[in-house]
Amino acid sequence: MLSSIQITNFRGFENLELKDLGRINLIVGRNNTGKTSLLEAISFVCDPKQAGSLPALFRPQWTRQNDARDARFYRWLLRNGVEDSVIRINAQTDEGMLRVAAGKALAGRTKPPDHGLDSPYHLSSQGSVNGSFDYSFQHTQRLVRICNISVLHRDSTKLVKDFAEAVRSVSGEQQLETLLRNVDQRIRSVRLDYDRNDSPQIVIDIGLGERIPIQQAGQGIYRLIAVYSEMLGQKPDICFIDEIENGLHHTILPQVWKGIAEAASRLNIQVFATTHSNECFVAAHEAFAHREPYDLRVIQLYNVDNRIEGRTLGREHIEAAIDGEIDLR
Questions:
Q1: In the predicted model, is pLDDT for residue 277 greater than 90?
Q2: What is the pLDDT of residue 306?
Q3: How many whole angstroms separate alpha carbon 131 and alpha carbon 104?
Q4: What is the DSSP string of 186-239?
Q5: Is residue 87 within 8 Å of 102, Cβ to Cβ?
């Protein structure tokens, strides 16, 4: 689990340092303050070998068209597009340090500093993306498994596949049902079934005469089954959820946050989520107010003199902001 991160020369970040990260980290801030960029930086330092997936990882509107367009994307990962600058991202974890350095022509001439850390998981390598963006990394642990959960409305085929992967093992099925039952005690089981057209669908037993399709179980349960399916199927160390409130009525948010808090704790997953919604921020606090430990952090990003700054807020500051009706978005 990441406890701190320092980002230099990455997108809009000249030098951003965030400490005291928690199990659940909710990123807030106005538009163009780097919320999505922060998710990209974290994913890059956790697993640099997935650098080729960055363009569309958190930007669904980005469709791969040609190498020239991708080259332009990577050039602008460097702050202000300065080609001779070097991106450096350092992250502290429970097991050790993650470091990545990247630039226009980094390979073969610049590497992250070697502080002589000795670890059985020590990794050091270099790579290049599209011939236009080079990187080197040094990890004192294994690569961190990451998972980006899309909150966009998914077609039933994709959701069914994710669900089937999650419940393939008996333990996975039991975990998913336990997590759901902790949110809604009516839930007895969740299964795959077939409709009259022989198409697979997910059905849920809530104590009625027969199981009902999850679309009829409510928005909150539908969203949680989608989130749990990816968590259990992919088994990540870190999970990203961009604009977590998308498509949900604000009254459903406490239920969703309660479910995410339970899953992150039981499955030992760290979550980084972004939001534009004050209701989402308040609902997250309400979900954690009755949990021990209180493992919610709010990362607030903001502009100061055309520089993006940030701070990590714990329970005391979160409650003060809510009580004082201070808008942190």
A1: no
A2: 83
A3: 9
A4: T--EEEEEE-TTS-EEEEEESSSSS-EEGGGS-HHHHHHHHHHHHHHHH--SEE
A5: yes
pLDDT of residue 118: 39
Q: In what order do the strands lie in the sheet with 97-103?
A: 13-18, 2-10, 86-93, 97-103, 133-139, 123-129
CA 12 – CA 31 distance, rounded (Å): 12
47-81 residue pLDDT tens: 888 888 888 787 766 555 555 566 777 778 888 76
The predicted structure's pLDDT at residue 121:
46
Q: What is the mean pLDDT of residues 249-273?
A: 91
Place of tokens 């209180």: 294
Q: Which string of b and e fits 292-313 if b means at least 16 CB within 10 Å?
A: eebbbbbbbbeeeeeebbbebb
Burial 186-219 (b: 16+ CB within 10 A, else e): ebeebeeeeeeeeeebbbbebeeeebeebeebee
**pLDDT tens digits for range 115-159:** 333 344 456 777 777 666 788 888 777 779 999 887 665 567 888
Across 83-92, b (16+ Cβ under 10 Å) vs e yields eebebbbbbb
Task: Please state at what angle helix 170-183 crosses helix 156-166, rounded to 10 degrees.
Answer: 110
DSSP assignments along 120-180, one per residue: TT-EEEEEEETTTEEEEEEESSPPPPEEEE--SPPPHHHHHHHHHHHTSSHHHHHHHHHHH
296 neighbors 20 (Cβ within 8 angstroms): no
